[in-house]
Amino acid sequence: MRFGTMKGCLRKQWACIVLGVFALLMAAPAWADPQQVLSAIDGNSANYRGVSQKIFDFKELGQQEFKSSQLLMEELRRLGFTVTGDLKVPADLVKDGISKTGFRAEMRGKGLGPTVTIMLEYDALKNGHACGHNLIATSGLMAAAGLAGIMKETPGRILVIGTPDEERGSLGGGKVALLEGGHFDGTDVVLITHGFDRWTVDQRVLAMKRATFVFKGKSAHAAQAPHKGINALRGAIFTFNGVDMLREHIRQDVRIHGIIKKGGDMVNVVPELAEAEFAVRALDTGTMESVYQKVVNCARAAELATGAKLEFSEPRVSLKAPIIIPTYTKMVIDQVRALGIPDTEIKDQEDFASSDLGNVGYTFPTVNLWFKIAPEGTALHSDAFRGYAGSEDGWKATVIAAKAIALTAYDLLTHPDKVKEIQDKFKELKAKEGK
Ligand SMILES: [Zn+2]
Q1: In what order do the strands lie in the sheet with 82-84?
Q2: Do residues 401 and 193 make contact, with C-beta atoms less than 8 angstroms apart?
């Protein structure tokens, strides 16, 4: 009995040891303290404020952001990133096939893990940094600086991609070219920020594709021999009428807007050439594509009805809409709340926009954190917004935005299960689009 008890005791001890080892193996590994990320950001904030101000003063337009991109590359090299400039991209999107103001910076951590990509934008408008891209660049740079200090003890990889030419993005100069050039390859999830009049992760990014319809008819004297002519302008007008009939049966977020670029030269001559341009937009890429085909059908019907020959080919580039993963956006906004932004400052979007950001968000799970630098109602691209993009209060919000995305990145790097969950949801939602 006594012996038996001893044996039972030993067995229990073994069970305890096995359980203990198992518990140790199962417990979350001891990664770096995320507080270090925040301290590194706070400690370097003054330096990065200077970087932001320089980019603000450079105010370089798309594809001419030489000084801004050089400055950012230097800063990233100083942090220990491996930086590559002059990125090869498709030659039909960017002249000579080299994105001279785009760059890719990489830092590997300790062992295998997810790849978190942070995007920087730094192009200005004709009225300077009225969209605050100087703050996108420096918030991303600060997040990278915060993470650089702990990557030696953190699994995975950080990619920082400098994406130029956002403002003219529909031409395919920025993110579209870098995506096609393979510079996002290996990315698991993406983060970016944007200054705004509120804090939000609510995205109202519309997919967009343009269509140019050229109608070729036959000129004739409009009064003397109209029966000998074919009116190309009628082709354009018929297209507009068809599109207007479509509107009765499209979802509320769909936008179709067109102009007539050419419609004849003289009133007494039947127009032999007409040209109409349309843009079709919707909150998801699948819906945009299906409405787009209906718009093209309107032009085809116009050709049939008028006899004016239609010339049309789909554009090389279209803008896509990001696929929104609620659990991923929540991770970011939860960090914003934890950093002290009150709920009253966090609001949904009201307006729609299109951006090449959508093409990244259609390819990889992406969150864009809009952060409040201006009073509510201040329009992007206005001179007033430019003022806030260079202001002290604007900078304070930028630091918080940098912290929020850095902490989210840290969470993702140390939790591959969360990344997998986000990616699975992304695939599921993408498959359902437009259906
Ligand atoms: Zn912008």
Answers
A1: 82-84, 103-108, 157-162, 115-120, 189-196, 366-372
A2: yes
Flag whether pLDDT at 24 surpasses 70: no
Residues in the chain: 435
Instruction: Kindly give the distance from the C-alpha atom of residue 303 to the centroid of ligand 1, in angstroms, as a whole number.
Output: 39
Average pLDDT over residues 68-74: 98
The span from the CA of 208 to the CA of 211, in Å, is 10
CB-based contacts of 406, cutoff 8 Å, min separation 6: 37, 38, 41, 142, 143, 144, 146, 147
Cβ(210)–Cβ(170) under 8 Å? Answer: yes
What tens digit of pLDDT does each residue of 38-53 get?
A: 999 999 999 999 999 9
What is the CA(139)–ligand 1 centre distance, in A? 14
Q: What is the pLDDT of residues 108-137, one digit of tens each?
A: 999 999 999 999 999 999 999 999 999 999
CA distance 410 to 151: 9
Q: At 430, which amino acid appears?
A: K
Tell me whether residue 24 is exposed, middle or buried, using C-beta atoms within 10 angstroms of its C-beta: 0 to 12, 13 to 18, 19 or more: exposed
* CA 77 / ligand 1 centre spacing (Å): 26
Over the stretch 136-149, which tens digit does the pLDDT of each residue have?
999 999 999 999 99
Q: What's the 206 CA to ligand 1 centre distance in angstroms?
A: 14
Determine the 3-state secondary structure of 125 from DSSP.
strand
Percent of the chain with pLDDT over 70: 92
Q: Going by DSSP bridges, is the β-strand pair 98-99/103-108 parallel, antiparallel, or unpaired?
A: unpaired
SS3 (DSSP) at 313: coil
pLDDT band per the 50, 70, 90 thresholds, residue 353? confident
Give the CA distances from residue 391 to residues 55, 61, 77, 142, in Å, rounded to whole numbers and listed in that order.
14, 21, 27, 17
CB distance 297 to 211 below 8 Å: no
Ligand 1 centroid – CA 123 distance (Å): 9
Enter the DSSP assignment of 60: P
* Helix/strand number for the chain, H first, E second: 12, 12
Contacts of residue 114, Cβ cutoff 8 Å, sequence gap at least 6: 155, 156, 157, 188, 189, 412, 413, 416, 419
Query: Distance, CA 9 to ligand 1 centroid (Å)?
Result: 68
